[in-house]
Design goal:
The chain is an alpha+beta fold. It contains nine helices and 49 strands. A hairpin with a 4-residue loop joins strand 24 and strand 25.
């Protein structure tokens, strides 16, 4: 690095110091003892100024070429006193005969290793005449640092000689006198000697550059998906309205009915991907051992639940994941930097700074470096580290760029502190080497804090990155017949329902029986008969069916008003509900979302009943002259009941029993089917004049669905689980886009009832004595 570059870097570090406003050595940092013995102590000094890359940070006043010499003789001790306070003592008996012992100040034969600097003079020690047969003692002063605070470097130094065979500086074991500020060592090696210290400015600049790179763009290659050209023909669109290159992605079709989306993290830091829980996900490419070790060591960072129906995964920097959404779905995946990824990134940066410094240390001491994954595993075995990180995970969610930046800096500080407890031990170094390593890494913690403070604005901006949304809409235009469910009695089907939690389907028949079917296997799994003692209801046809929200119970409504509750696990009848024999058919049933209340439509003109499941008590009769009620439906929050019948569509407050709104009038024709959208924002009604979509908030009609190619009646309406599709049954079965009102597909089959499976991938239509199953292709 040239001199001007060095000065510029120095200014950056000095500015960082002013921003950080931290003391040179943080108070209390010495709580962990530096490993050393009385005889083997690390040098206490302050290293590094703002010099060039290979220039010493502490300079010598001794001019190059200056030589001092003494006479030595066998059996006599002698001391050579050099400039700058150096002294070399030759004990009696250390030389074979008389001669001259000299020391010459010279230029360094090789630069200091990367990340290190030569401090003080370089002396070439030589013996002319005799042979050295015993060790000499070197007493070497350590120059005081020019800089102060963190910029002074760690309180550590190495006494070294130059080995021409390896062309490198070789450290030796040395002890330190804190009063005299001198290194003392014994050696039988006469060569070129000097002192090495950590080049603080160079290391801090490297740490700063590492952070700048860490916050940058990875510029990964965009993933390539198969079958991209087939998306439009399959009725699938994948798009984003977001600008930027936070991620790179593609979409395609892997095979029949197998859409896919691949998302690549285009940053040098990890980010979170929130995606629907019904989408399958797998990581692509080779694993990242360090990233995986962080998730293993801190399981709270592997939380998969991000909210109702949503999961989250953190993608490693530059890595790619593949999502497999269902064929019928309208949803999105969002890439962002959230709390979990901020904490993981902070740990990764802490590890990166240690690994960077590790490279300088390992090369200087000629020892093996540390396995970063092993260091993470060891660091987070400590209970206090786990506890403190758990507190960050479960703390208040950041609500501003500054708060995100503070979280990152706090987590990075915590990570470096935890790593410092184990990293030095993984070198398996002893004595002075171990003390040097421990002191350098201890200083590094404050160095990292300094850099984080200097780059706080960049950190705040990056860690508060706006989310990148990938919008997926699959509304297939083609549906194929999967199979047909037909009971052996050929009794006509009056009603149809599918469990909200399984692949169980039930049909209610005109002969009073009901059959349970497994959609996947297309097999009948059970028969339910109505154990009715009263002769009025014997053999009564099954007008309506409803599963409880947990799928454990089935309610059947009979033609003369009786309602029977069945436990599906035991097959037993657990309750019956009625309000007068033969008054009117229970034409529609609906459980409240909490499963505690059952609503029943009365075709006899009395209105709609609300029943308490636990006690069998009638809670209310919602009537007010609305006439016969054909269909009932609870809103997803359970506060509103919709009824459809001769009086149009009415919304009721379940708590008070009062009307909230009326949609349509008797002039528009009877309403035979009502259904709330899964999010409760829309209500669909079906009747003789087709299907209508209503906005619950505004109480306004938003769309009318009628197939001009057939009669317009809609005998049954059903939303897909994501609310993107409305199915209507009549002389043909039609699928409609609820967002645009456009028809998606027509299935050429007449149906009286229609229902979606919980995953939205199967559509069931009922007519006559059979059910037909359909799937998108």
């Amino acid at each position: 690095m040239n001199q001007s570059g060095s000065k510029h870097r120095c200014r950056v570090i000095v500015r960082a110091l002013a921003l950080a406003r931290i003391p040179a050595v943080r108070a209390g940092r010495s709580a962990r003892a530096v490993p050393a013995t009385a005889a083997l102590m690390v040098v206490v000094l302050a290293a590094a100024g703002c010099s060039g890359q290979h220039s010493p940070t502490r300079h010598s006043a001794t001019p190059t070429g200056h030589t001092r010499a003494i006479r030595v003789a066998a059996g006599h001790a002698a001391s050579l006193r050099l400039a700058d306070g150096w002294e070399v003592t030759i004990p009696a008996g250390s030389v074979t005969r008389s001669g001259t012992f000299s020391g010459t100040a010279i230029s360094a034969p090789a630069p200091a290793p990367p990340g290190m600097a030569l401090a003080g003079p370089v002396f070439d020690l030589s013996l002319a005449g005799p042979t050295l047969v015993g060790p000499v003692q070197l007493t070497v002063p350590v120059p005081a640092p020019r800089a102060t605070g963190v910029l002074a470097g760690p309180d550590a130094a190495l006494l070294v000689y130059y080995n021409p065979a390896t062309s490198r500086w070789q450290p030796v074991t040395a002890s330190y006198d804190p009063v005299a500020r001198t290194l003392t060592a014994t050696s039988q090696h006469l060569s070129i000697w000097s002192v090495l210290v950590l080049n603080a400015s160079q290391v801090l600049a490297a740490v700063q550059n590492a952070l700048t790179g860490f916050l940058g763009v990875a510029d990964v290659a965009a993933p390539s998906c198969p079958g991209t050209a087939q998306l439009a023909g399959a009725g699938i669109t994948v798009a984003t309205a977001d600008a930027g290159d936070l991620v790179k992605w593609c979409a395609g079709i892997a095979g029949p009915g197998s859409p896919l989306v691949q998302v690549a993290d285009n940053r040098n830091y990890g980010m979170e991907l929130d995606y629907p829980a019904n989408w399958r996900l797998q990581r692509l490419g080779p694993p990242d051992p360090l990233f995986d070790q962080i998730l293993t060591s801190l399981p709270t960072l592997s939380l998969q639940a991000s909210g109702p129906g949503t999961r989250v995964i953190t993608i490693a920097a530059g890595h790619t994941v593949e999502l497999r959404p269902p064929l019928v779905d309208v949803d999105e995946a969002t890439a962002t930097v959230g709390v979990q990824s901020i904490l993981i990134n902070a740990i990764l940066y802490g590890v990166e700074t240690f690994a960077l410094t590790d490279g300088f240390i390992a090369k200087t001491l000629a020892i093996a470096g540390v396995n970063a994954a092993a260091a993470v595993a060891g660091a987070f075995k400590a209970k206090d580290c786990l506890t403190e990180f758990d507190a960050l995970v479960h703390g208040p969610a950041p609500a501003s760029p500054q708060a995100d930046g503070v979280l990152f800096r706090n987590a990075a500080d915590l990570a470096t502190g935890c790593l410092d407890k184990v990293w030095p031990t993984l070198y398996h170094a002893n004595g002075a080497d171990a003390a040097f390593i421990a002191t350098v890494l201890l200083w590094l913690i404050d160095g990292v804090k300094l850099i984080l403070a200097d780059l706080h604005a960049a950190i705040d901006t990056v860690m508060y990155a706006r989310g990148y949304h990938i919008l997926y809409a699959s509304l297939p235009t083609h549906w194929a017949r999967l199979g047909v469910l037909a009971d052996r009695t050929a009794s006509a089907i009056q009603s149809l329902a599918i469990s909200p939690v399984s692949s169980t389907l039930v049909t209610g028949h005109i002969d009073g029986s009901s059959y349970l079917w497994n959609i996947a296997s297309e097999r009948e799994i059970a028969t339910i008969t109505q154990p009715v003692a009263n002769s009025v209801f014997k053999g009564d046809q099954v007008e309506s069916l409803a599963f409880s929200p947990d799928g454990a119970n089935l309610a059947t409504g009979l033609g003369k008003g009786l309602i029977v509750l069945h436990n599906l696990a035991t097959g037993q009848t657990t309750a019956t509900f009625n309000d007068g024999y033969g008054q009117g058919a229970a034409s529609s049933l609906a459980f409240s979302p909490d499963g505690k209340t059952l609503a029943a439509a009365d075709l006899g003109g009395r209105g709609a009943f609300l029943w308490d499941i636990a006690t069998g008590r009638k809670l209310a009769l919602l009537s007010a002259g609305i006439g016969a009620v054909t269909s009932v439906a609870f809103s997803p929050d359970g506060r509103t009941l919709a009824t459809g019948g001769d009086g149009g569509t009415v919304l009721w407050d379940v708590t008070t029993g009062h009307k909230i709104a009326i949609f349509g009038t008797s002039a528009s024709g009877p309403i035979v089917s009502v259904a709330f959208s899964p999010d409760g924002s829309m209500l669909a009604t079906g009747g003789f004049n087709g299907a209508v979509l209503w906005d619950i908030a505004t109480k306004r009609r938003t769309a009318t669905f009628a197939d001009p190619a057939t009669t317009s009646a809609a005998d049954s309406v059903a939303f897909s689980p994501d609310g993107a599709i409305l199915a209507t049954a009549g002389t043909s079965t039609c699928l409609w886009n609820t967002a645009t009102g456009a028809k998606i597909a027509t299935i050429d089959i007449t149906a009286d009832s229609v229902a979606f499976s919980p995953d939205g991938q199967t559509l069931a239509t009922a007519a006559d004595n059979h059910v037909t199953l359909w799937a998108p292709v």
